[in-house]
Amino acid sequence: MAATVTECAQEMVKAYNRMVSQGFAAARMGWEQSAATTRLMTEALQAEQTASGKIWEQSIGRTRDRSEKMAELTRAFAASPAASASPEAQELMDAIVAGDQEYFRACAEYAQGVEKRRADLTTAMLKANTDLASAGQEMAESAMDYGRAFMDWSFAVGRGTAPTAPF
To answer: What pLDDT was estimated at residue 67?
Structure first.
């Protein structure tokens, strides 16, 4: 703790400068977080659009392919009831089942991708919020340091009213 009014004033100026610097750092961190969040949200939206576009394309393709195979199967059964036991009919059924399995696997992968992208986004945003809170805490601590330095200076000025007090 400073003993003279001059030392107290110097400490107060240092504390004030730290407080202002921390204030600017917190504001800069806020702007950076805002920009980073906007960028993250934009990237997440683009990734989601790409992934959902692919699954929709697969859905349309799968529906078309399945419908064509079912139509072939229906025509074969209509032509001959014994066609259900034919190797061609069995091959069509196997192709339908294999296509369905592939499609459902793609849907599951899409759902897992959604959750992973959501978790990554949440993690990144939590880190940015933590950094911002830390910058705010540092600013608050520097404001408290400034308040203490101001009080010390005030007391030193009060003590400095005596003719022997150094200034």
So the answer is: 92
